[in-house]
């Protein structure tokens, strides 16, 4: 089935569409804001609540601090946005807590993810941030540490060969957990350029260690289920998930059983329709473009 443009629906069709879901889960970067709020996004969520829908937020971005998120939600006129937000750092910490994990976590993560893990009482190990100039000295990064019981990857934009050597060494032990947060192989920095994300390095370690990580970021089903649990939602078929990335956002929707709405911040309609395996159920130019549409319902 080809994606449906919500802008092309008449009032009767929009009412049928609204009856298919009770909860809205939305990505943040590229949907609510880029460098500044995207016009109309806050009004869209307000309208959804007026129509009786609950609103929650799900992002792969663990790099932002609580204050940074709160400032962005406030700028977009969204109240209590951070309280309704699920990110990989929280999912990783809650997952480890749920299994009574009591060893050291080796973090190939952004600083904020490590801060969250430490706030939950976990011991973290990280680095080295810089390797040696002489290649033969890299043997030191092949030394195991029996205290390490988990390797976590999540948005470390300072990833390097020493960290990857160390991660692969720890993962050689089958009892060491392998966890990934954000899986983004590419990030939307500059159109027409190759903008690698950190997920590509997680994939390299996964291949070399011959281990598949537990995915606690988009598009992992476990992450979607964790977001549902935090929101008190039990039926994924009654969720509309909104995102701007096909692999991460539409992928999460498909994995978890959500309906999906793609906003075309970082994709053209041609890109969307040409994707071989993932297509959203619905699409629109932006959330702001839908405000006058739903105001007439």
TrEMBL record:
Substrate binds at residues 59-61, 218. The keyword Metal-binding applies. GO terms for molecular function: metal ion binding; phosphatase activity. Keywords: Hydrolase, Magnesium, Metal-binding. It holds the Pfam family Hydrolase_6. InterPro entries: HAD-like_sf, HAD-SF_hydro_IIA, HAD_sf. CDD domains: HAD_Pase_UmpH-like (cd07508). The active site is at residues 27, 29. Mg(2+) binds at residues 27, 29, 244. It comes from the Eukaryota. One of its GO terms (cellular component) is cytoplasm. Its cofactor is Mg(2+). The keyword Magnesium applies. Divalent metal ions. Mg(2+) is the most effective. Gene3D superfamilies: HAD superfamily/HAD-like. Belongs to the HAD-like hydrolase superfamily. This is Phosphoglycolate phosphatase 1B, chloroplastic-like. The gene is LOC106121911.
């Amino acid at each position: 089935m080809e994606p449906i443009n919500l802008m092309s629906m008449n009032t009767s069709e929009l009412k049928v569409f609204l009856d298919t879901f009770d909860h809205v889960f939305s990505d943040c970067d590229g949907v609510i804001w880029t460098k500044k709020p995207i016009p109309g996004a806050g009004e869209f969520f307000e309208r959804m609540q007026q129509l009786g829908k609950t609103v929650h937020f799900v992002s792969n971005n663990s790099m932002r601090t609580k204050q940074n998120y709160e400032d962005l939600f406030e700028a977009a006129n969204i109240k209590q946005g951070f309280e309704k937000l699920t990110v990989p750092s929280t999912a990783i910490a809650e997952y480890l807590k749920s299994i009574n994990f009591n060893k050291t976590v080796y973090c190939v993560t952004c600083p904020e993810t490590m801060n969250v893990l430490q706030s939950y009482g976990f011991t973290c190990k990280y680095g080295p941030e810089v390797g040696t100039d002489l290649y033969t000295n890299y043997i030191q990064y092949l030394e195991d540490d029996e205290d390490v019981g988990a390797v976590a990857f999540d948005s470390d934009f300072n990833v390097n060969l020493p960290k990857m050597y160390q991660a692969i060494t720890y993962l050689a032990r089958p009892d060491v957990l392998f966890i990934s947060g954000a899986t983004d192989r590419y990030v939307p920095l500059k159109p027409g350029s190759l903008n690698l994300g950190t997920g590509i390095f997680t994939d390299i370690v996964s291949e070399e260690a011959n281990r598949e990580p537990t995915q606690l970021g988009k598009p992992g089903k476990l992450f979607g289920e964790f977001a549902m649990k935090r929101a008190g939602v039990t039926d994924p078929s009654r969720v509309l998930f909104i995102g701007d990335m096909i692999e991460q956002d539409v992928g999460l929707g498909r994995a978890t059983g959500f309906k999906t709405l793609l906003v075309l911040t970082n994709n053209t309609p041609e890109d969307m329709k040409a994707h071989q395996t993932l297509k959203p159920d619905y699409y629109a130019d932006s959330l702001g473009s839908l405000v006058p549409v739903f105001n007439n319902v």
